[in-house]
Design goal:
single chain; 107 residues; alpha+beta; four-stranded mixed β-sheet; two-stranded antiparallel ribbon; 3 helices
């Protein structure tokens, strides 16, 4: 029986994630759905935080990666994962990788 290693879809990410039946069976979520404006990342960062909160209850033995992250010249974090980073930091959860992609491993 052939195994499916990955699938891709074109849809509103929040609606699609909400409708997904097997969230607990997914090994990797790669969040990269909303273009970021580096000097005003709030719309993108909030969108990605909404995505994360949809999948959060199902994150066991799973990796979550968020694309497009950086620091401004003033040292301020910006990008798609900024709000997720702040949200998880408040819970004492730190990423295993924190560069242009921020990556978390959930056990």
């Amino acid at each position: 029986i052939p195994r499916t290693y990955f699938e891709s879809f074109c849809s509103d990410s929040r609606s699609w994630l909400t409708s997904l039946d097997n969230k607990q069976d997914i090994d990797l979520f790669y969040l990269d759905s909303y273009d970021v404006k580096w000097m005003d990342d709030t719309p993108s960062a909030n969108h990605h935080l909404e995505e994360f909160k949809i999948i959060e209850p199902y994150l066991q033995n799973c990796i979550v990666a968020i694309d497009d992250n950086a620091y401004l010249d003033n040292g301020k974090r910006t990008g798609k994962g900024r709000a997720i980073f702040e949200y998880l930091e408040n819970k004492g959860i730190i990423p295993i990788w924190d560069e242009y992609q921020i990556i978390y491993k959930f056990k």
